[in-house]
Specification:
The chain has 190 residues and is mainly alpha-helical. The chain has 11 helices and no strands. α1 crosses α4, α4 crosses α6 and α7 packs antiparallel against α9. The longest helix is centred in the middle third of the chain and has 18 residues. Pfam families: DUF924.
Length: 190
């Protein structure tokens, strides 16, 4: 049976504070590896079957990877990419605000405690995301231009402007407003 350390060893295979390009780019080999090793965990995790993992910092981090990152890799262009987001935010809220488990992690690992808020279409969650990511400002790798802190601010700006992420509209079957269409046509992104 898969354990939290199996997920952490896979995701942070180059070290607990080493940024991997495969995390945020389309990489079919990386996605296939997630599917082969951990794809069967997505539905049980979304349904709460792995919530006991959240009792420890490593368990929470592993669960957040399953709920927030793995669906984005395995379900690109499909609504299931976002199906676990509410549960991910709930786990992240407990881990970061109630238990402060994020503080037991390296700066790179901490960012994965905060991403569920950055992925939210709620301005309150976006404000929380920015505040949490700003807490990483003292770590040079986190504060570099086009780094995770800048991306948190960019995500927040999109939600402030549109109240949602326009690039999700097609996937989620939502009609785009003229302003969203213009933004997307101009290369809207982060």
């Amino acid at each position: 049976m898969t354990q939290p350390n199996d997920i952490l060893a896979f995701w942070f295979s180059e070290g607990p504070d080493t940024f991997r390009k495969a995390w945020f780019t389309k990489d079919e080999t990386f996605d296939a590896s997630i599917r082969a090793h951990f794809g069967d965990l997505l539905v049980p995790a979304r349904e709460g079957a792995l919530d006991s993992w959240a009792e420890t910092p490593d368990g929470s981090l592993a669960l957040l990877l399953i709920l927030d990152q793995f669906p984005r890799n395995l379900h690109r262009g499909h609504p299931d990419a976002f199906a676990s987001d509410p549960h991910a935010r709930s786990i992240a809220r407990q881990a970061t605000l109630a238990r402060r488990q994020d503080l037991a992690a390296t700066p790179t690992q901490r960012s994965f405690f905060y991403l569920p808020f950055e992925h939210s279409e709620s301005l309150a969650d976006q404000n929380l995301s920015v505040a949490l990511f700003e807490g990483l400002r003292d770590h040079p790798a986190m504060a570099k231009p086009d780094g995770v802190i800048d991306y948190a601010w960019r995500h927040r700006a999109v939600i402030q402007r549109f109240g949602r992420f326009p690039h999700r509209n097609t996937t989620l079957g939502r009609a785009s407003t003229p302003a969203e269409t213009a933004w997307l046509a101009a290369g809207g992104g982060f």
